[in-house]
Amino acid sequence: MLAVFMFSKKIENQLQKQSYVSKQKIAGVEIVDLKEFSDDGGSFVEIGRLGKGLLKAFPDFEVKQMNYSTILPGAVKATHIHKVQEDVWFVLPSSRILVGLQDLREGSKTEGVKMRFVLGAGKAQLLLIPRGVAHGLANLSSAPANMIYFVNRYFSADEKNCDEYRLPADFFGEDFWEMTKG
């Protein structure tokens, strides 16, 4: 039997256990793992197949526009929400992006639930963000990060047709976009 090690009372009061329990997910948010094919010359990832503008991974999502974005080191792009548009994000596996989501849909079974996770970081995944779910991202690394995203509504800068609603950058919490220490 192993002996139990005792810490000093001063340290014991500062100790916390890290939780490894899966956190609640927001209803309608989906993450799909993609297959990456690698060889000695590089790699290939199929982001999606289209059939009449529909992504096979999300058959109810009709692609209207595809976008590419570079996020500079230290940049936080938060927080916004759509009433009509839905997004599908793909962060290149060579990049690393911290994602924040919160369900703001009135009456949703996950109303108010927040999610915080990383996309990219060596994995090829698609993220579906339903309308009514606030979202943002941060690049906590020292290199630019790249992402491709699909939307099911054409962007309009015209105020009458714009579906881009902004929330404060600290909407998820004052230190939400800080790198987790420990």
Describe the structure.
23% of the residues are buried. The model has no long low-confidence stretch (mean pLDDT 89). Strand 2 and strand 3 (42-45) form a beta hairpin. The chain is mainly β. It has one helix spanning 9-12; strands at residues 30-33, 36-39, 42-45, 50-51, 54-55, 58-62, 65-71, 76-81, 87-91, 96-103, 114-120, 125-129, 133-138, 145-151, 165-166. The chain contains one helix and 15 strands. The radius of gyration is 19 Å and the shape is globular. The protein is 2% helix and 41% strand. The strands form four sheets. It has a five-stranded antiparallel β-sheet with strand order 1-12-9-14-7, with no helix packed on it. A five-stranded antiparallel β-sheet has the order 11-10-13-8-15, with no helix packed on it. Strands 4-5-6 form a three-stranded antiparallel β-sheet, with no helix packed on it.
Q: For the largest beta sheet, what order do the strands appear in spatially?
A: 1-12-9-14-7
Number of strands: 15
What is the terminal-to-terminal distance?
29 Å
Number of contiguous helices:
1
Query: Averaged pLDDT, please?
Result: 89
Strand content: 35-45%
The amount of helix comes to under 10%
Q: Structural class of the helices, strands and pairings?
A: mainly beta
Task: State the low-pLDDT regions, or none.
Answer: none
Helix and strand run: HEEEEEEEEEEEEEEE
- Biggest sheet, open or closed, and with what strands and sense? 5 strands, antiparallel
> What is the 3D shape?
globular
